[in-house]
Amino acid sequence: MSGHGRDAVRIAMPWLAMALFLLVWELVCVVFDLPEIVLPRPTRVFEVFFQRLDILIAFCWDTLWTTVLGFLIAIVGGVVLGVLIGASPLIYSGLYPLLIAFNAVPKVAIVPILMIWVGVGALPAVITAFVISFFPIVVNVATGLATIEPEMIDVLNSLGASRFEILRKVGLPRAMPYLFASLKVAITLAFIGSVISETVGGNRGIGFLMLSAGARNDAATTFAGLFAIAIMGVAMYAICALVESRMTRWAFRGQLVS
Amino acid sequence: MTFVELKAVSLTYRLGKETTLALADGTMAVDKGEFVAVVGPSGCGKSTIMKLVTGLLQATSGEVVVAGQRVTRPIKGVGMAFQNPTLMPWRRTIDNVLLPMEIVEPHKRRFRRHRAEYVARAMALLETVGLADFADKYPWQLSGGMQQRSNLCRALIHEPELLMLDEPFGALDAFTREELWGVMQALWLEKRFTGVLVTHDLREAVYLADTVHVMSRRPGRIVMVKQVDLPRPRTLASTFEPAFVDIVHELRDRIHHEHAA
Q: Which of A132, A187, B131, B158 has its CA 20 to 30 A from that of A10?
């Protein structure tokens, strides 16, 4: 096979895999004659998806902006805290156990508390998205800073660099690939956060749409919502991956040299 | 004139409850503009001397004096090069070489406005080590020898009075290493900085140094100081001349004696 042909197959593979998955799903529904309320056929889900596209888009938009807002706050907060933790062993030893404990708390559990504090609406979703996507960013940025080669620090020290200069010249550039790697994880987590919040107690967003469709035994619409979340998640992931490859080309040296 | 002086310096590493005496009695003097090599069996504390002189480590006892000043914290503006080139993969070669200019005064202050002038200076230096065509390449696009050349340029760009080299050619193949001896010697003959080279390659030590200090096994002491009165510039051919070979043998015998002891 020529190199060109192999490339085309490589690009087609994810679509083929998805088509196969949907095909098997469709066949299982038909062969076992599953009722729609248990598991709707993919074709039926797509039908509903396009029938209710306007409603889906409206609800998706709510979910999307709360997710992205929470995610952006998580980036800012995560980078600041990650830098502090990575640059100072003292702050590390003080805050890290706290962060672990915080991260171990199921985020579902904090949504009711948030509702008491800020009521229903967009705010709990933003906060949940922030809280859930914050942790991987902090950990990755801190790791990037903490794993600088000691010789590199020696070189800078012998030039008379201040701690801030070492951070700026070595620490931050070195933490960048770690940051961007964490963003891919964090954005999908942020979606989970905002949808959890909408499902536990919301009056808006795709999570709420799915919940109310489920309550009406409208499984097809619930699944259409699920598809919508998956599409948004993949799209945001792709944007993060693109930003990553643009911002930290040097970290992908193997692919560049060829 | 003595530029670097170690007076009965010792260093004890402490790791948990264990203490290791890395350097027992470091006493040596390096004149201004002299190129000195420190050789010895592995683990004898050669690298410790490097870190003591630059102030990256503080002596447990004794005194380290550089340029008339007692060293109590990292001294500024020293050039350093390690076996690992420690170039920054996100910077092009030229920007890696320019790094000290962004940190060392008075260049730091002038760097932004006089960038072109500094770039020209860095290019001239890269030219002397044969890397002018690779200035815009990233370190990971260069071979190991080229990376080490850029590392030397970075260590020298700010014209430090003191250059500390910790086995800078240790990870290179024999041909590249011998080629870089010539590069190093040419740089030293031109700029006449004070150089301290830590190495376990005796031919390298004799090729480059005016004076070779031999260290004992751990805990390290200086057990022999050998002047190398061979004419410069030395060439690869001179490494096969009897006078050169005799000095290498003398040093080797002393180190074997250490291993046997």
A: A187
In this structure, are B194 and B218 located in the same domain?
yes
Q: Does A173 touch chain B (CB under 8 A)?
A: yes
Token pair of B192 as six digits: 């006449």
Asked whether residue B206 falls in the same domain as residue B150, the answer is no
Interface contact A257, partner B, CB < 8 A: yes
Structure confidence at residue A40 (pLDDT): 93
Looking at the complex, report in whole angstroms how far the Cα of residue A150 sits from the nearest Cα belonging to chain B: 9
State whether A158 and B78 contact (CB < 8 Å).
yes
A159, A163, A166, A176: best to mutate for the B interface, most B CBs within 10 A: A159
Is residue B13 in a domain?
no
What whole-number distance in Å separates Cα of residue B222 and Cα of residue B208?
19
Give the domain-ending residue among B137, B159, B181: B159
ipTM of the complex: 0.82
Same domain, B148 and B233: no
How much is the pTM?
Answer: 0.80
Whether residues B256 and B166 fall in one domain: yes
Structural domains in chain B (count): 2
pLDDT digits (tens, 9 = 90+) for B195-218: 999 998 899 999 999 999 998 887
Are residues B102 and A169, on separate chains, in Cβ contact within 8 Å?
yes
What is the rounded distance in angstroms from the CA atom of residue B149 to the CA atom of residue B147? Answer: 5
Rounded distance between C-alpha atoms, residue B220 and residue B198, angstroms:
13
- Identify all chain B residues contacting A253, using CB atoms and an 8 Å cutoff: 89, 138, 140-141
Range of the domain at B47: 32-58+72-78+162-261
Question: Per the domain annotation, does B11 fall within a domain?
Answer: no
- Residue at a domain's end among B129, B159, B189: B159
Mean local confidence (pLDDT), B126-153: 89
